[in-house]
Amino acid sequence: MAIRIGICGAGGRMGRNLIAATREQEELVLAAALERPGSSLIGVDAGELAGEGAIGVTVTDDLPAVLPQLDVVIDFTLPDATVANVQACAEAGVAMVIGTTGLDDEQKRHLRDASARIPVVHAANYSVGVTLTLSLLATAARALGDDYDVEVVEAHHRYKIDAPSGTALRMGEVVAEALGRDLRDCAVYGREGQTGQRDSKTIGFETIRGGDVVGDHTVMFLGLGERMEISHRASSRMTFARGAVRSATWVREQAPGLYDMEDVLGLRSG
Ligand SMILES: NC(=O)C1=CN([C@@H]2O[C@H](COP(=O)(O)OP(=O)(O)OC[C@H]3O[C@@H](n4cnc5c(N)ncnc54)[C@H](O)[C@@H]3O)[C@@H](O)[C@H]2O)C=CC1
Ligand SMILES: O=C(O)C1=N[C@H](C(=O)O)C[C@H](O)C1
């Protein structure tokens, strides 16, 4: 039987790609498309948003009303909206795939609470390449150890509203964990003025914003006499959308819990 998908943030940059990616998969059916209350897109046909012509699904702002017709909700919106949506999905027993970044600790706690009742995948980056890169970063950090300084550099389009990117933060967390550090204690966000010499135990983050960059991430391991860089560059949002849609098929079969894309790809070690 077809898996019925609802997309929250359907009119956004990711939402439009998610509509297209859902419609690529025969086993999935786009059953609902949601936008924020007051959006000019309410009532528009979701197929038009993806440039595919009418498909008979009109954009709505009422998630609780459509939840009984859904198997999985994919949410790429804003942190506050994602928290409200995960609570509604937990209430209705509908699984979720969440791509929203920029959540604070309290907002993440709401996701954990909801995941006691429903399966939730939350990943800062749904590309297969970035997910594999996380494993490579852990291996590199363990091998290079504390002798190498770690800096994370990311670039995104001019419209992005959170910084550093969720992916950069996740990369920093993975490296910190592999080095036995806690990112909350060792992160340095940008530098300016009389900074003093670099503290070897820090992990630095640099953010570039501009133009139409889809998403670039580089982690540098800088030693004395050599420098190693691990980079990923996304050239199309469809790579994120296809990963999220793949996660939607996967999450439906899972027990309640909080998962990420490494779980979806079976890359979780231990
Ligand atoms: N995990 C991943 O692979 C990726 C994550 N993202 C993240 O996804 C989020 C969205 O990114 P974009 O699509 O570029 O942003 P966007 O601003 O183009 O789209 C967000 C959409 O959500 C809608 N929205 C806001 N509140 C809503 C609500 N209560 N109900 C339904 N819709 C609501 C907005 O009206 C907008 O159309 C960001 O946090 C971004 O960082 C983006 C790309 C990949
Ligand atoms: O906002 C974006 O565009 C992206 N956001 C995600 C992030 O914050 O890491 C993933 C991707 O890089 C694109």
Task: Compose a concise summary of this entry.
By secondary structure, the chain is α/β, with parallel strands linked by helices. It has helices spanning 13-24, 46-49, 63-66, 79-92, 105-114, 128-144, 166-178, 183-186, 238-251, 261-264, and strands at 3-8, 28-34, 59-60, 72-75, 95-98, 119-122, 149-156, 187-189, 203-209, 215-222, 227-234, 257-259. The chain has 10 helices and 12 strands.
Shape: elongated
Low-confidence stretches: none
What is the CATH first-level class name of the largest domain? Answer: Alpha Beta
CATH topology of the largest domain: Rossmann fold
Total beta strand runs: 12
Give the averaged pLDDT, no decimals.
97
Bound molecules: 1,4-dihydronicotinamide adenine dinucleotide, ligand LZUJQKHR
CATH architecture annotation of the largest domain = 3-Layer(aba) Sandwich
| CATH superfamily label of the largest domain | NAD(P)-binding Rossmann-like Domain
Rg estimate, integer Å: 19 Å
Main sheet summary: 7 strands, parallel
Number of helical segments? 10
How is the largest sheet built, in terms of strand order? Answer: 3-2-1-4-5-6-12
Q: Helix- and strand-based class?
A: alpha/beta
> What is the terminal-to-terminal distance?
34 Å
Q: What is the share of helical residues?
A: 25-40%
How many structural domains?
Answer: 2
Strand content: 15-25%
Return the string of H and E elements.
Answer: EHEHEHEHEHEHEHHEEEEHEH
